[in-house]
Each structure stands twice: as C-alpha cells, then as structure tokens.
Design goal:
The chain is built from seven helices and five strands. It is an alpha+beta fold. It has two domains: about 55 residues, no CATH class; about 100 residues, START domain (Alpha-D-Glucose-1,6-Bisphosphate, Chain A, domain 4, 2-Layer Sandwich). The radius of gyration is 19 Å and the shape is elongated.
Length: about 180
C-alpha cells in the first residue's frame, strides 16, 4: 500500500544550494524589507527582481516565508482559498481511467460516499465538478503516459480551512488507492 507523504519545507541545504541563502537568511532579508505587509506576488517579485532568485525558487521561498510568519496557513493559496490535491499514475489505458470518473455507476464502485456533480467534461482530458452540493469544486485532469499507463490529478478547491484541506488530502489519497485497485485489479 502506498504511503501518504507529509509535505515538508525544503531543507536549509537545498535552499542554500538553489538560492544562495538559508531559510533564516531569507526570512531576515524579507523582514528587513517589510515583506510581512506584502501580498504574495510582491514577495515573490522582490526575491526574483531584487535578490535575483529564479522564478520557481522565489515562489518556494515566498510560501515558506508566509508559512513561517503566519501570513498563510498550510494548504492556503495566495488568494486566501484552501485546497487539497493528489495524483496517481495507474497501469491502465487513458480511456478506461477517464471512464471510471465520468460514468457515475463505475465511480460509485470506488467513490461510494462522494457527492460529486459533473458540470463540464472533455473526454479523456478533464472533468470539473461541484462537490458536496456545490460548497467546493473538484478539477480532475487526465494524462496519457503510454498505451497502458495513465495519470490522474485531483485538485479540490474552495475548501473552508487548513483542517478541511488536510482531511480532503487524505480522502483523495484513499479514493485514488481504491480507483487504482479497481483499474489494476
């Protein structure tokens, strides 16, 4: 059985190797610049333009700073919304993987308690759905990885809190395990 990985911040060694400074050094620079009062975009732009940090690492350092300073909670996006996501690569053809999501009868076999109402779907590409009567939204994307291999990603958006995001992250991990078992078993 697959383990659920805990999302952790990159190590000081990795951050220093990729950006030239440790977390503590970046936090000190950002505090001195007044970043506690800035929006996410401003922090990232400051790191990228003023400190010459690459685009990807300026985002990583910005989010780490926001978490460290209590500006952003775990699973909270820069717009303030909370989300949970998951993905799985399965040994099954793309059309079969897509069908297990699109067909309600098949979906109920591995997602029996999921209150999902599909609002838009593009065959073998994507599904958008309301969840739990529309209080949150789910976006599912499908990727062909070969004749008998596919990947599915789930992004559950507009969740109420960091706690609900953590619960839904676990929920989707377990749901993807059940879908994989159905498809590969």
């Amino acid at each position: 059985m697959k383990k659920l990985r805990e999302q952790k911040r990159a190590s000081d060694e990795t951050v220093k190797a990729k950006s030239g400074k440790t977390w503590a050094q970046w936090f000190k620079i950002l505090d001195k610049a007044g970043a506690k009062k800035w929006e996410h975009r401003e922090i990232s732009l400051f790191l990228h333009e003023n400190q010459k940090v690459s685009g990807w690492w300026s985002q990583m350092i910005s989010v780490g700073y926001e978490h460290e300073r209590g500006i952003r909670q775990k699973f909270q996006k820069c717009d303030g919304d909370f989300s949970a996501s998951g993905s799985r690569t399965m040994n099954a053809p793309l059309s079969k993987v897509y069908e297990t999501w699109a067909d309600e009868t098949l979906r109920r076999k591995w997602l029996p308690d999921g209150d999902m109402e599909i609002t838009t779907a593009t065959k073998d590409k994507s599904i958008r759905a309301k969840w739990d009567g529309g209080t949150s939204r789910v976006s599912i994307l499908f990727y062909n990885k070969g004749p008998q291999k596919s990947q599915v990603t789930v992004d559950h958006m507009k969740l109420a809190s960091s706690k609900e995001s953590e619960q839904m992250r676990i929920y989707w991990f377990e749901a993807l395990n059940r879908a994989q078992k159905l498809l590969e078993g």
